[in-house]
User: Which sequence fits this backbone?
């Protein structure tokens, strides 16, 4: 190398990461905010980019340059999931009255007050509390 010339890496490769992930695709060195990252464009079966991910060089265990055909074949067996289930929060369960089936989103009308019911127990509304105690 002479002067300020920089060789930018751009090759089809198999990328192995310290977290025991194995990806394949077109690997390119990119600069973001003055820092170097490795960008991998993961191909679909036709070689078109299906997903792109960026990794810090410290996360890399091994880079194996290979042909486009081999990278596409390896990519088919090691595609990254776009969103993992653990990243999604489960919705809160909706309270439901054990007697009338009303919910916190769809309250029944309390026959004594004429107002929407309220919770007297975790699964019993104010409209049904009297019937529940007389039924036992």
Assistant:
């Amino acid at each position: 190398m002479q002067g300020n010339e920089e060789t930018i890496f751009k090759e089809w490769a198999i990328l192995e990461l310290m977290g025991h992930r194995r990806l394949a695709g077109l690997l390119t060195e990119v600069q973001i905010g003055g820092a170097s990252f490795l960008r991998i464009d993961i191909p679909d079966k036709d070689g078109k980019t299906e997903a792109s991910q960026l990794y810090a060089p410290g996360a890399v265990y091994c880079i194996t340059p290979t042909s486009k055909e081999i990278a596409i074949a390896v990519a088919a067996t090691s595609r990254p999931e776009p969103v993992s289930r653990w990243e999604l929060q489960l919705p809160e369960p909706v309270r439901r009255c054990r007697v009338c089936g009303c919910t916190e989103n769809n309250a029944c009308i309390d026959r004594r007050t004429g107002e929407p019911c309220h919770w007297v127990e975790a699964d019993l509304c104010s409209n049904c509390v009297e019937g529940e105690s007389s039924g036992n």
